[in-house]
Specification:
single chain, alpha+beta, 3 strands
Length: 70
């Protein structure tokens, strides 16, 4: 299995969890989503019901190696 296949499996798992647990307040899971103002894409992004980003993997890293806050 390659990275895209693995990402698809993880997204399927998250989609099932989100459907089974609407009380979590998470709206959807996306693969290969671009960050605003950047051409870099995250492998996996979890979004809240209101569209706010809750989790990005891998996290954005600046030139000094620090991760950006969400």
């Amino acid at each position: 299995m390659n990275e895209w296949g693995f990402g698809g499996e993880i997204k399927s798992w998250w989609d099932a969890e989100l459907a089974a647990n609407p009380h979590l307040g998470l709206g959807r899971c996306e693969l290969e989503r671009s960050s605003e103002g950047s051409h870099r894409r995250a492998d996996l992004t979890l979004l809240a019901d209101d569209g706010r980003v809750n989790l990005i993997h891998p996290p954005a890293v600046n030139a000094r190696g620090a991760t950006s806050g969400i």
